[in-house]
Design a protein that fits this description.
alpha/beta, 39% helix, five-stranded mixed beta sheet, globular, D-Maltodextrin-Binding Protein, domain 2
Length: 270
């Protein structure tokens, strides 16, 4: 018995980090688009934030998908959601506490467009918002993106389910589907077909920051996220994680060679 006890003490002495890590379970929103829609970048980011504060994170997905507004309401009411991430907007910030660290470094507002293969050169001469208004985009009506495009005078079809938007491009029912540079390739692979692709000439750009949101009464979780986020920014882990997931994508799509179409975001607030 003494032998085993001494061995245990030696292990603790040599490996203090083994006991330093506590388990922490965090319930996050269900992916709206099923398992394929899981956000592996955010999962990895959260785990690194918690590790920096001495916790081993267990992520649990809420079983019932809902849009951002319903999810925010659940979180505000403490209904089986601990945290969500979304674009910064006034109506959400009022009910919840925002962790003011941009999750995606603003790249969510860098929009490339999905088009039919036959329309690869459709936007070759588009260089203004007015030019872009000659074409019809597709977004979901309850997305902030829909409101941003509409408020800039662009034509937007908004009454389709997410997967149907890719079909709408395939059947040329709409002209383009703007998606963030960080998600567009993965989504084409998972939800598209050989008939659709990324248009090579334009970049639709507007200010957009995504934050983590937490129930205002959950001080413990707020403290962990705020301190942990600051820690991984300071030690370079945040940048390493971003580059691991998105560095090659940003290089691949050659942003400096694209014509930038700058839009206003009436909901943007730092």
């Amino acid at each position: 018995m003494v032998k085993y006890f001494l061995s245990f003490v030696v292990i603790l002495f040599l490996c203090p980090y083994v006991v330093a890590q506590q388990q922490y379970s965090l319930t996050i929103p269900a992916p709206v688009n099923g398992v394929k829609g899981k956000n592996l970048y955010v999962e990895s980011l959260l785990k690194k934030i918690f590790i920096s504060q001495g916790y081993k994170l267990n992520i649990i997905y809420n079983p019932i998908p809902s849009n951002k507004f319903r999810t925010a309401k659940k979180l505000s009411d403490n209904e089986n959601i601990d945290i969500l991430w979304a674009n910064n907007r006034t109506d959400m910030s009022q009910q919840l506490h925002a962790i003011k660290q941009p999750i995606y470094k603003g790249f969510i507002g860098f929009r490339l467009v999905i088009v039919h293969q036959k329309n690869l050169n459709l936007f070759a001469n588009v260089n203004t918002v007015k030019n872009l208004s000659n074409f019809t985009a597709v977004q979901k009506k309850d997305w902030l993106d829909y409101e941003i495009l509409s408020s800039n005078g662009l034509k937007v079809e908004g009454n389709m389910a997410f997967t149907a938007m890719f079909k709408a491009i395939e059947h040329q029912l709409v002209d383009y589907f703007p998606r963030s540079i960080l998600e567009i390739d993965r989504e084409i692979t998972e939800f598209g077909s050989h008939l659709i692709t990324v248009e090579p000439n334009i970049l639709i750009k507007y200010p957009s920051l995504s934050y983590f949101y937490i129930n205002k009464k959950n001080k413990e979780l707020t403290n962990i996220i705020e301190k942990g986020f600051q820690a991984i920014i300071k030690n370079g882990v945040f940048e390493q994680n971003f580059q691991h997931f998105f560095g090659d994508l940003v290089k691949k799509h050659k942003l400096k060679q694209r014509q930038v179409i700058q839009l206003k975001n009436p909901y943007y607030k730092k």
